[in-house]
Specification:
Elements: E1 10-15, H1 25-35, E2 39-46, H2 68-78, E3 82-88, E4 91-93, H3 94-97, E5 114-115, E6 118-120, H4 126-142, E7 147-151, H5 171-181, H6 194-221, E8 226-229, E9 237-242, H7 256-265, E10 272-278, E11 280-282, E12 285-289, H8 292-304, E13 309-314, H9 326-338, E14 347-348, E15 352-356, H10 365-379, E16 385-388, H11 392-395, E17 404-408, H12 416-424, E18 428-432, H13 440-447, E19 449-454, E20 462-464, E21 479-481, E22 487-491, E23 500-503, E24 517-522, E25 525-527, E26 530-532, H14 537-544, H15 547-560, E27 567-569, E28 575-583, E29 586-593, E30 608-615, E31 620-627, E32 630-634, E33 639-645, E34 648-655
Parallel strand pairs: 1-2, 1-13, 2-3, 3-7, 7-8, 8-9, 9-10, 10-13, 15-16, 15-17, 17-18, 18-26
Antiparallel strand pairs: 4-6, 5-6, 11-12, 14-28, 19-22, 20-21, 20-23, 23-24, 25-26, 27-30, 28-29, 29-34, 30-33, 31-32, 31-34
Helix pairs in contact: 4-6, 7-8, 8-9, 10-14, 14-15
Length: 656
C-alpha cells in the first residue's frame, strides 16, 4: 500500500520566500518536531529553483549558496519527516520570457501577463507541456522526495492581484482549440456564446490531460512519489484550503474544513484529502494570522472528518512575526500524533448522502444551496456523507447504502449511471434549488414533476406551512417568506397541495399591505418516497439564517421517510458531532464546540455542560476519554456523558 493511503499526515507548509534559503535548517526541523509534524511542504522549483538546477528555463535562487533543498530533505528524512516538494509552474522569471515568448499566456489585448519580475505561462505552451516534465525528472532523480505539489495549476484569467486579464489568446491555445472544435477561440466569457461553452470543456479536458501526463511521468520515475494539486484528476492527494479573505462576502463559512475533507474522503477510495488550514487573514496579509480559535476549529475539522492535518504559514518559523497561533496548533498536532492509530481510516455510520455541486469552492449559485443544506444537517446532528458531482458515476453503485439522497441546486445531472440508480434506489431522493430542471424526463419519472414558468417577482410572497401534520415546527407560524428563484410546477394527481404558494400583494405603506392570495400551487411535491422543492431553501438558510427554511425541509423529509441516526443527543446546535467506526467493534465519537463563533469573530468557546449521547445500534463495553496526557476509562453505560465540553473532545468506544 502506498504510504499516503495510511492517511496519517501531519503536514506543515512553509511557503518559502527566496530569502528563506538562509534559514537555519536544523532549527527549522526542531520546530517541526516541536509541533508534532511528520511532513513538511517546501518550495523546490518552478518560479524559483531552491536547488542548483542545470536547466536553463529555471531561475536559480539568487540568495542560495550550496544546495538548500538537498540539505533540507536529507536532514528531514534523518528525523523521520517526509518532504513534499512544492512547484509553481504558472509563472517563470521574466528573463526566460525574453527567450521563449511562445510559452506564455497572452491577455485579450495580446500582451504577456506580467507580475513584478514574473510572467504567466500557458497550459498549452511548451513550458507547461514539456519543460515541467524535465524539471520533475531532475528533482525526482536527484532527491528522494516523498511527494510533489503543484500550485496554481491550470488556466488563470486574473493576475495575482485579481485584475482580470481574460481568456488566454496565445498561439498554442488558438491552434489547439481550433483543432479540437473547428471554431475560433472566444475572447470573452459569454455564456450565450457557443464557442465559450466549448471553451469551458476545452479547459477541463486540457488540464486533466496535462495532469495525467505529469502524473504518469512522476510515477514512471518513482511510483512511491505522491502527486498533489487542487484537482482530483491524476493525483493521489486532493488539495483544498480553509482560508479567509477580507473582501469575501458574508456569511462566514465555519464548516470549511469539514466540507473540504468530506468531499474527498467520501468520494474517492484511492485518494486522500489534504485540506490546508491557512494561518493568514488574507493573501495580502500573510504575516498576520486569523483567530487562534478559528485555526483550531479548522484543524480539528480536518481531523474529525477523516483527513490528516495540514497547516500553512509563509516563510520560516524563526522570523515569522505572529506566533499567537502556534501553541493551539501544537495542541491539535500533538493530539493527533498521540492517537493517530484511531484516525484516518474511518468507516462512516451515515445514512444520508449529500451531493456537492461545486466541490472546490463557491463558484456557482448551486454551491449556496448546498452549503445551506450542509448547515441544516450539521446543526441537527444528522450524520451525512458528501459526494462530489464529478464522481457520480462512482457513487451510483453505493446509493442503496443510504436512506436519503439529497441533491441541492444541480440543474443538470450528467451522469447517466447516477440517474439510473436514482430510479431504482430504495433510498428517499430529495432535490432542492431547481435540481434536475434540465433533466426533464428524469424529473418527471423520479419526482412526478414538470416545471412551468418562473415566478418573476417572488419578493413579497410567502409559503403557507400546511398541512400542520407534516410541518410540525410551525404550530404558531403560518407564513414563511419566499425569495430567490421559484418555479411553478405540475405534479402528479394525489400529490396534494403541500406548502401552498401565497402570491405577493401590494407593497407600500402599511395602509396598502393587503391582497395576498393563497393559491393551489404546491411548493413541495412528493411522489412515493421522493421529494422535490422548486425553490431554494438551502440558499435562503445559508444567506439569511432563519431556521424556518431548515424545518420546512426536515419536517417534509421526516414525514416521507424518517432516517434513523446512529445516536441521539441533547447537545445544542453549536456543538458539532462526528461518529465513525475506526476498527472492528470500535468507534470514535468526537465533539467540536463552535459556541465561540459569533458570525464574524471567533472567540474562545463557551464551556458546555452535561452533554449526553446514546446509541441506537451499538452497546458500549468500554468507553475511553482521549486526553492529551492519555486515555481515561469511563464507566461502561448505554450512553456517553460529557460533564464539560471546551473546544474539542474525543471518546473511544469499544462495543459488544
Amino acid at each position: 500500500m502506498a504510504w499516503w493511503l495510511e492517511n496519517k499526515l501531519r503536514m506543515i507548509q512553509n511557503n518559502l520566500r527566496d530569502i528563506d534559503v538562509k534559514m537555519d535548517i536544523d532549527r527549522y526541523i526542531a520546530t517541526l518536531k516541536e509541533f508534532g509534524a511528520n511532513a513538511c511542504m517546501v518550495g523546490c522549483g518552478g518560479i524559483t529553483s531552491f536547488y542548483p538546477t542545470k536547466l536553463e528555463f529555471q531561475y536559480p535562487n539568487p540568495y542560495m549558496e550550496g544546495d538548500f533543498f538537498g540539505e533540507l530533505i536529507e536532514k528531514c528524512h534523518r528525523n523521520g519527516i517526509r518532504v513534499i516538494a512544492r512547484f509553481d509552474f504558472s509563472k517563470t522569471h521574466e528573463s526566460i520570457y525574453e527567450k521563449h515568448k511562445d510559452w506564455y499566456t497572452k491577455s485579450v489585448h495580446g500582451e504577456p501577463v506580467r507580475y513584478h519580475d514574473t510572467v504567466a505561462t500557458c497550459v498549452n505552451g511548451k513550458y507547461q507541456q514539456e519543460c515541467t516534465l524535465e524539471i520533475l525528472r531532475e528533482v525526482i532523480t536527484r532527491y528522494p522526495v516523498d511527494g510533489v505539489f503543484f500550485n496554481m495549476f491550470g488556466y488563470q484569467t486574473r493576475d495575482y492581484s485579481g485584475n482580470y486579464v481574460g481568456i488566454c489568446q496565445c498561439g498554442s491555445c488558438k491552434t489547439r482549440f481550433r483543432e479540437m472544435y473547428h471554431m475560433e477561440l472566444p475572447q470573452a466569457e459569454d455564456e450565450s456564446d457557443a464557442a465559450f461553452c466549448k471553451y469551458k470543456e476545452f479547459r477541463q479536458i486540457t488540464v486533466d490531460e496535462l495532469l495525467n501526463k505529469i502524473s504518469g511521468e512522476v510515477k514512471k520515475i518513482n511510483p512511491e512519489v505522491l502527486v498533489c494539486t487542487y484537482n482530483h484528476q491524476g493525483v493521489d492527494m486532493v488539495r483544498n484550503e480553509s482560508n479567509s479573505a477580507l473582501d469575501r462576502p458574508y456569511p462566514f463559512w465555519i464548516y470549511a474544513s469539514e466540507n473540504n475533507v468530506s468531499v474527498v474522503e467520501d468520494s474517492f477510495e484511492d485518494k486522500i484529502s489534504s485540506n490546508c488550514v491557512i494561518n493568514a487573514v488574507d493573501i495580502y496579509y500573510r504575516f498576520m494570522g486569523v483567530s487562534r480559535y478559528l485555526n483550531q476549529i479548522r484543524l480539528y475539522g480536518d481531523m474529525a472528518s477523516g483527513g490528516g492535518l495540514d497547516w500553512c504559514i509563509i516563510g520560516s518559523f524563526e522570523d515569522y512575526p505572529d506566533r499567537d497561533n502556534f501553541n493551539l496548533v501544537k495542541e491539535v498536532f500533538q493530539f493527533h500524533k498521540k492517537y493517530e492509530d484511531y484516525f484516518g481510516g474511518f468507516t462512516s455510520k451515515a445514512r444520508i448522502l449529500l451531493i456537492n455541486p461545486s466541490p472546490f469552492g463557491v463558484h456557482n449559485p448551486a454551491a449556496y444551496e448546498y452549503l445551506g443544506i450542509f448547515k441544516m444537517l450539521k446543526e441537527e446532528h444528522r450524520l451525512f456523507d458528501v459526494a462530489e458531482a464529478a464522481g457520480l458515476d462512482y457513487i451510483a453503485e453505493k446509493l442503496n447504502h443510504y436512506d436519503l439522497i439529497l441533491i441541492p441546486g444541480i440543474r443538470f445531472v450528467k451522469s447517466k449511471a447516477f440517474l439510473q440508480a436514482l430510479k431504482s434506489t430504495d433510498a428517499c431522493v430529495a432535490a432542492t434549488g431547481l435540481s434536475m430542471a434540465e433533466n426533464e424526463g428524469e424529473l418527471k419519472e423520479i419526482f412526478g414533476v414538470r416545471l412551468k414558468e418562473k415566478l418573476e417577482k417572488p419578493r413579497g410572497g410567502y409559503l403557507l406551512t400546511e398541512p400542520k401534520s407534516i410541518f410540525k415546527n410551525f404550530k404558531n407560524r403560518n407564513w414563511v417568506y419566499l425569495d430567490k428563484e421559484y418555479y411553478y410546477m405540475d405534479t402528479e394527481e394525489g400529490g396534494g397541495n403541500l406548502l401552498p404558494l401565497i402570491t405577493p400583494a401590494i407593497y407600500g405603506p402599511p395602509e396598502r399591505c393587503f391582497g395576498h392570495e393563497i393559491t393551489k400551487q404546491p411548493s413541495a411535491a412528493v411522489k412515493g418516497k421522493n421529494v422535490y422543492l422548486p425553490w431554494q431553501p438551502g440558499t435562503l438558510y445559508y444567506q439569511h439564517g432563519y431556521e424556518d427554511f431548515k424545518y420546512i425541509v426536515l419536517n417534509l423529509l421526516d414525514s416521507v421517510k424518517p432516517v434513523k441516526n446512529a445516536f441521539f443527543t441533547n447537545a445544542p446546535k453549536q456543538v458539532e458531532i462526528f461518529f465513525d467506526q475506526c476498527g472492528k467493534n470500535r468507534y470514535l465519537l468526537q465533539f467540536l464546540n463552535l459556541s465561540g463563533f459569533n458570525g464574524t469573530t471567533v472567540f474562545e468557546p463557551i464551556p458546555i455542560q452535561d452533554i449526553q449521547v446514546s446509541f441506537h445500534d451499538i452497546k458500549p463495553r468500554f468507553i475511553y476519554s482521549l486526553l492529551p496526557d492519555g486515555k481515561k476509562e469511563l464507566p461502561a453505560a448505554c450512553e456517553v456523558c460529557i460533564p464539560v465540553l471546551n473546544q474539542y473532545a474525543a471518546y473511544l468506544i469499544e462495543a459488544e
